[in-house]
Specification:
Blueprint lengths: L1 H28 L6 E2 L6 E2 L34 H4 L8 H7 L26 H28 L5 H29 L4 H4 L2 H24 L6 H7 L12 H17 L3 H7 L1 H8 L2 H19 L3 H30 L3 E4 L2 E6 L8 E6 L2 E8 L2 E6 L13 E3 L2 E3 L6 E2 L16 E2 L1 E4 L2 E4 L13 E2 L8
Antiparallel strand pairs: 1-2, 3-4, 4-13, 5-6, 6-7, 7-11, 7-14, 8-9, 9-10, 12-13
Helix pairs in contact: 1-8, 1-9, 4-5, 5-7, 5-13, 7-8, 7-9, 9-12, 10-11, 12-13
């Protein structure tokens, strides 16, 4: 019975792998995206998207920049001087913005433009540098591991050295991936590592795949069973901790990493919707727990040297400690209670406490709100970016738009809507200024709803 289930699982995995490869090749070769309707809704057409790493000044894999809305008088450029006003906003976006230009989408035969422009795929300079550094580091690590391994253990086979090199590199890189998030919450200087973290995730999966493939070839390819069926059925001692089938844990973890790598592109984020995509990618913690079990049980069954066990424990403690530290820091904002201020409003903060073109972040009715001060006005929007839940309140206003510090997604502070042709929207909140204090209505307006900014001069407060 267990073997039949294993065979079905293996067949499903093969189909899953083939579909994943097909989608991956489609993205890499032609950049197939979604169908966008024309402005009048009368027809649809396919075009290929350039993944230039910018949307306005966006630095992720999203759509390319377009002509600005009539709200702006000229194309927007981000300079290092504009970003130097606030240390928490990373200068990485300054470099991304220097090459930013807006283009108008070609008109359709009827004269209506498409909502997005589609061209061939391309990597910007930041992505290339990021990927070169990662790949160079991985190649150097594997070369040194195999070289020293062959010197210290001359009887080890080439397959064994490759298995250990790729497996340890993947495990180490997964720790780096998991540490980047909390490190960015604790210190904004780590933000450049976050922008293309998905590339690290894909490399982690590829290294894990190399480890798994060579392990299956060495240990499960010589029998009369399918190698994957052999992997799942050769050891069924689930009731024994010393003999627990640790290889199955690694196989499950690799399947999760493959799912995350295959859906890492923004195509899936947009079509699955951000909440579903984010939930799906939270499975990285399940994969990490499975790999901790895989490595720990494997060490118990095959190694007597305590160094590897100590290293694994140190990595686990590091990941947990950073997450707890970042969570504790964020919890301070959530636990701060705002005082009722009358007429259903709550007292959020003082006007003077908000830096110009930056925000103060407060927790209102369980939701974080970013209160921005700009051009003698106060506006409040949701603190959560629609792209990947980035903290809008840690960004700043650039050329009239609230700019997310993670990937540069932009929103008008009065409406919470991205400038055309982009369609992302966040909730807005009504504000008042009373005696130099910002009052905020805890009831959010629907995403994209215009709320008139509170004028600081009319409240008799110096901006």
């Amino acid at each position: 019975m267990y073997e039949r289930i294993a065979i079905l699982l293996v067949d499903a995995f093969y189909l899953y792998a083939v579909l994943g490869v097909v989608f991956a090749l489609a993205f890499v070769t032609v950049g197939i995206k979604r169908v966008d309707s024309q402005a009048n809704g009368s027809g649809t057409a396919f075009r290929l998207l350039i993944f230039s790493g910018k949307r306005g000044i966006r630095t992720d894999d999203s759509a390319p920049p377009q002509d600005p809305s009539p709200h702006f008088s000229s194309a927007r450029f981000v300079t290092s001087s504009a970003l130097s006003e606030r240390p928490r906003f990373s200068p990485f976006l300054a470099n991304a913005g220097k090459a930013t230009k807006f283009r108008r989408a070609p008109a359709s035969p009827s004269g209506n433009t498409m909502s997005h422009q589609y061209q061939a795929i391309g990597w910007n300079r930041q992505k290339r540098v990021y990927d070169v550094v990662v790949l160079t580091g991985v190649a150097l690590y594997i070369a040194l591991f195999i070289g020293f391994g062959a010197w210290l253990f001359p009887y080890a086979t080439a397959e064994t050295l490759i298995i250990r090199a790729a497996g340890s590199a993947a495990f180490l890189l997964l720790h780096v991936v998991l540490c980047i998030g909390p490190l960015c919450r604790l210190d904004s200087r780590f933000l450049p590592l976050l922008y293309n973290r998905r590339h690290l995730g894909v490399v982690t999966f590829l290294l894990g795949a190399v480890h798994g493939i060579f392990a299956i070839i060495q240990f499960h390819s010589l029998g009369d069973k399918d190698p994957l069926v052999s992997l799942l059925t050769s050891n069924q001692n689930f009731g024994s901790l010393p003999d627990f089938p640790f290889q199955q844990l690694g196989f499950l973890a690799l399947g999760i990493l493959f799912l995350m790598a295959a859906t890492s592109h923004d195509f899936w984020l947009r079509n699955l919707t951000p909440p579903i995509w984010k939930t799906l990618h939270m499975l990285v913690y399940v994969a990490y727990a499975l790999l901790i079990g895989h490595v720990t049980l494997g060490l118990l069954q095959s190694e007597t040297n305590p160094v590897l066990a100590i290293a694994t424990g140190t990595g686990l403690v590091t990941v947990l400690s950073l997450h707890l530290a970042a969570g504790s820091r964020e919890r301070v904002v959530d636990l701060k209670k705002l005082n009722p201020a009358g007429k259903g409003f709550v007292d959020a903060c003082s006007v003077e406490s908000i830096p110009e073109k930056c925000a103060a972040v407060v927790s209102v009715s369980g939701e974080r709100v970013a209160i921005f001060k700009f051009d003698g006005k106060i506006s409040a929007i949701s603190n959560v970016c629609r792209h990947q839940n980035g903290p809008l309140g840690e960004g700043k206003i650039i050329d009239g738009c609230v700019t997310c510090p993670w990937h540069g997604y932009q929103y008008l502070p009065e409406t919470g809507a991205s400038p055309p042709p982009f369609t992302e929207k966040v909730s807005t909140f009504q504000t008042q200024i009373v005696d130099g204090r910002v009052w905020i209505d805890p009831k959010p307006r629907a995403p994209g709803t215009r709320v008139e900014p509170s004028k600081i001069s009319e409240a008799g407060v110096s901006s």
